[in-house]
Structure to design on (558 residues):
């Protein structure tokens, strides 16, 4: 019971901390929603593969939102708390290190869920998007699972970046990957060589899975997308673990 | 040093102990063959200039570093044991704590880590945080920030408290306030290791002082013992003897020049003056003063100011 209380308190205070940091909370929520209004709603009447762009872009901006919430939530806070010595103070206490990561993971998922829910509301009210509960829930679930991949990447960046360099590094990863994965402009509208590059990017595969779940893409390569996501997630987790060990090595070496 | 049997040492291990510890960062040695221990209810000050290795010693005892050679023990066990972490509280020199959480929230969270934390009101009382409990860390003054870190160190009601430069950067009033709070803990039979480069702080608080410089222990004892052990007297005089010759004389601990005069630190001023007079009959302007701990400390560590 005692241990559960530690986890719950850690989540609660992580949540309060993030809510009180507008520099994280506001862009994380407003960027994807505003972009969706600009592109998804504005070009929403156009059709592709049997769905409106308003519906199609729910999947791509949903992916964009999840990516931002996870990457920034992990990378920036871990880099700062590590760099400024706070993590070291926590480690002199008997805090289970798992509580620290679970709290950040919870935060990434809560913010991802908030962004995707807001997109759904905008899609319905402004984009005229309707869909049955089944696919809507399936896409929601897929996007939340995607938070794991980008949280692992964020954690890895947090372990290697300094407190002030983490945010710029995340932007250097986040922005190009979003564009090249077809999250802003649909992948089919991008040049062929970019479509090829996208095959190596986890954000592309997550968005394709999300599109598949609402029958908006139909490229049908579900197994391939899941495989690439699984592999990249493993790579990111391994990199994060390496960073964690390296950090310990510096301390325990 | 008390006489203890092996049995005693096994049954009642010292709250903190370094035995023959050396620690290098790459090829740079930070500690060389350092040994000391802290007895229950004792406050030991680790005194030394910046870069002497104090923080390294602290991190070894907290299990944040492991020794290159030698052994670090807390209550006879590895400092990294979870049980030991519950019995140890620490105040480290850190740049920043999450700034958007309130004092009350920081203490609430940190207390939850420990099996038998101090009641919240007691923590506030002991750290002197009345009236700022609802303030965010980012809105606290320097002294209040240090007191919050102190509160986090004691909130688990630890038996061993390790304070790394607890009053660095504080004004004298805030410093004295924290001293009062540290003294109050001693009344509760806590063991405390405190590092400082303020002589006054060691003098005001410590039962025992360990002076450390460039990674080695150079003196150990009560502050009055340290004064004697070091340059107990300071001789000021004018002489034609070169400083190097004076430095090589028996009982001379330190030699500095002050304009035309030499400043000589020594525990045996009579012997040194007799020696100087035989070598330089024109020795003039002799003044002998008692060295304060400050001089003693400077003599011991050879630091320049």
């Amino acid at each position: 019971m005692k241990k559960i209380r530690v986890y719950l308190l850690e989540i609660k205070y992580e949540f309060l901390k993030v809510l009180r940091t507008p520099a994280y909370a506001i862009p994380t929520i407003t960027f994807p929603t505003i972009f969706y209004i600009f592109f998804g709603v504005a070009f929403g009447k156009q059709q592709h593969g049997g769905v409106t762009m308003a519906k199609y872009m729910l999947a791509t901006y949903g992916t964009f939102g999840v990516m931002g919430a996870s990457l920034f939530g992990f990378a920036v806070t871990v880099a700062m708390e590590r760099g400024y010595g706070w993590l070291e103070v926590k480690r002199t206490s008997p805090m289970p290190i798992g509580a620290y990561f679970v709290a950040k993971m919870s935060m990434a998922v809560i913010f991802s869920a908030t962004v995707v829910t807001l997109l759904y509301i905008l899609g319905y009210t402004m984009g005229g998007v309707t869909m049955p509960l089944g696919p809507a829930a399936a896409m929601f679930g897929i996007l939340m699972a995607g938070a794991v991949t980008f949280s692992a990447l964020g954690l890895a960046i947090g372990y290697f970046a300094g407190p002030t360099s983490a945010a710029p590094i995340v932007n250097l990863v986040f922005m190009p990957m979003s564009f090249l994965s077809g999250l802003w402009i649909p992948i089919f509208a991008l040049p062929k060589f970019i479509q090829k590059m996208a095959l190596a990017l986890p954000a592309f595969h997550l968005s394709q899975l999300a599109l598949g779940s609402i029958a908006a893409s139909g490229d049908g390569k579900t197994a391939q997308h899941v495989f690439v996501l699984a592999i990249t997630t493993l790579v990111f987790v391994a990199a994060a673990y390496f960073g964690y060990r390296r950090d310990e090595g510096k301390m325990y070496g | 040093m008390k006489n203890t049997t092996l049995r005693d040492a096994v049954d009642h291990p010292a709250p903190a102990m370094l035995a023959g510890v050396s620690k290098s960062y790459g090829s740079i040695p930070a500690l060389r063959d350092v040994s000391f221990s802290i007895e229950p209810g004792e406050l030991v000050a680790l005194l030394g200039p910046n870069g002497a290795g104090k923080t390294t010693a602290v991190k070894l005892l907290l299990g944040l570093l492991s020794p290159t050679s030698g052994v670090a023990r807390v209550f006879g066990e590895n400092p990294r044991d979870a049980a030991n972490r519950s019995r140890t509280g620490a105040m480290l020199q850190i740049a920043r704590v999450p700034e958007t959480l309130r004092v009350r929230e920081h203490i609430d969270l940190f207390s939850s880590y420990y099996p038998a934390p101090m009641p919240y009101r007691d923590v506030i009382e002991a750290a002197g945080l009345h009236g700022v409990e609802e303030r965010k860390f980012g809105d606290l003054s320097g002294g209040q920030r240090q007191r919050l870190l102190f509160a986090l160190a004691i909130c688990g009601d630890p038996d061993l408290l390790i304070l790394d430069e607890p009053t660095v950067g504080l004004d004298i009033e805030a410093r004295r306030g924290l001293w009062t709070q540290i003294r109050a803990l001693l009344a509760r039979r806590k063991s405390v290791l405190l590092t400082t480069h303020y002589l006054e702080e060691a003098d005001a608080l410590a039962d025992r002082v360990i002076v450390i410089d460039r990674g080695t222990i150079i003196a150990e004892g009560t502050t009055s013992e340290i004064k004697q052990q070091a340059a107990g007297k300071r001789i000021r005089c004018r002489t034609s003897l070169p400083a190097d010759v004076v430095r090589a004389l028996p009982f001379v601990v330190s030699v500095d020049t002050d304009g035309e005069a030499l400043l000589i630190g020594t525990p045996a001023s009579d012997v040194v003056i007799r020696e100087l007079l035989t070598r330089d009959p024109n020795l003039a302007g002799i003044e002998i003063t008692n060295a304060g701990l400050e001089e003693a400390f400077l003599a011991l560590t050879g630091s320049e100011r």
Notes: Chain B has a mean pLDDT of 86. Chain B touches chain A through 33 residues (CB under 8 Å). Residues 172-186 of chain B form the longest helix (15 residues). The two ends of chain B are 33 Å apart (CA to CA).
